[in-house]
Every structure is written in C-alpha cells, then in structure tokens.
Amino acid sequence: MIGHYHPMTVLVRQIVSALSEQGFQVYNSPELETEANNFDFLRVPADHPARDSQDTFWTVDGRVLRTHTTSSQANIRATESDSQDGSRPNPPFRVLVPGRVFRNEATDATHLATLNQIDGIVVDEQVNLGQLLATVKLILEIAFGQQLKIRQRPHHYPFVEPGLDIDVYFQGRWIEALGCGLIHPEILAKMDLDPDRYQGFAFGIGLDRLCMMRHGLTDIRHLTKGDLRFNQQLMVGT
C-alpha cells in the first residue's frame, strides 16, 4: 500500500528545509515543562490566566504540558543534549523549535487540545526588525506557495519588546498569521547573554491554522483523523 505524508509533516519539512539554508538548526525541546520554564522565564505574570488549570494541563507534581514552543528559550542554552548535533548554541545562532503544544480547550472546528507550533530564535550582535520581517515573510510564502503582502500590528508579548502580530493578505482579506518581536533584554540575560552586546528576534507560528488556510479547510479536526484518502487529496498540487 502506498502511503502519504501528513499535510502537517509536509509543511514543517518545507519550512525547516528553507530555513536550514538560512543557517537555522533544529532544536528539540521537552513537551513536559516546569512552571518556571513555561511561564516565569518568559516574564508571564504570576496572576496571568494562562497559568490557570482551565487553560493549562498541570501534572500532580506541579509541571505543565507546554503551552507554547516558546518555552524552549528557557533551556536552549542550558543543555547540550537536545540540539540536532548535541551542542549548546553560542551566539551568533539561529534555532528552530517545532513540536506539539497543549491547551486545556474543548475540541471544535477551530480548537484542539493538542496543536503544532514552530518557534524561531535568532541571536547576534546586530539584529533588527527588518531581518525578522524578512524571515517571517519567507515562511509565510513557503506555507502558501506564493508571494504575499504582510502587515504588522503592535501586540504585547511579555518575552519580546517590541512585540508584533503579523497579518497576511490572503484570498482578499487580512488574516492574523503569527506573533513575533525582538527578544526582551531580560530574556537574553536569563540566557546568560549580555543584552548590551547581543540582540535577538523570535517568532511563534501556529502551524495548524496555517495548514488549514493552505488547504482551504474549515474544520481543524480533519488534520487529526489519520485518513489516508484525505491526506492524498490534500497532497495533490502541494
């Protein structure tokens, strides 16, 4: 029997392949995280509703199923075992972190309890918003297979400053695509990097939503059914 790659696998591989040519390396971050890594390190306030059990899956020992791949910023330079080549990244570095994230949400046409994200982190002595916008535009054009117009809107994320939401103009309307920004100096310092010397940018992309738009889906649950005939249909023309 001839099988087919899942549409999500195809999308992730295309993004990783293109950004590998830009010097990015893949890093594997744990799905089971500490509260410190998932929230505290990223400057998420102690009273933020995301910490509530109604939004986040907590284990009996006080750990969490990560709510975003952004938690990788907490351990990316703290270990030498999880990068693809087993090394601890030293600046300048460009890292991609694809993986599953978990939200305590009811499943419906636009929500799942298990989602797919990819985070990107770039640190160097000279990093700017222009480089960030060029990178995310490349990713979006890979995802949609065409040149696109994008726009940015200010948005507060505690781990970047300034923070931005990126919208893409697709099929006659603007659609929110991802969040990003310049890494907050406090985060750089927590990474054991001198914020007076180094700057960085980071982006986080919800891949399920991109995959839905890419294939014209209206129900996110189609991506989890494992129907080979459905996958084959989506792969036509990809």
UniProtKB/TrEMBL annotation:
Name the InterPro entries on file: aa-tRNA-synth_II, aa-tRNA-synth_II/BPL/LPL, Phenylalanyl-tRNA_Synthase
Q: Which reaction does it catalyse?
A: tRNA(Phe) + L-phenylalanine + ATP = L-phenylalanyl-tRNA(Phe) + AMP + diphosphate + H(+)
Polar residues biased stretches = 69-78
Q: Name one GO cellular component term.
A: cytoplasm
Keyword set, alphabetical order: Aminoacyl-tRNA synthetase, ATP-binding, Ligase, Nucleotide-binding, Protein biosynthesis
EC number, UniProt record: 6.1.1.20
Q: Translocase among the record's keywords?
A: no
Q: What class of enzyme is it?
A: ligase
Q: Which GO terms describe its molecular function?
A: ATP binding; phenylalanine-tRNA ligase activity; tRNA binding
Q: Which domain of life is it from?
A: Bacteria
**Region annotation Disordered: residue ranges?**
69-90
Gene3D superfamilies (UniProt xref): Bira Bifunctional Protein, Domain 2
Q: Which GO terms describe its biological process?
A: phenylalanyl-tRNA aminoacylation
Domain named Aminoacyl-transfer RNA synthetases class-II family profile is located at: 11-213
Q: What is this protein called?
A: phenylalanine--tRNA ligase
Native species: Candidatus Berkelbacteria bacterium Gr01-1014_85
The record lists the lineage as: Bacteria, Candidatus Berkelbacteria
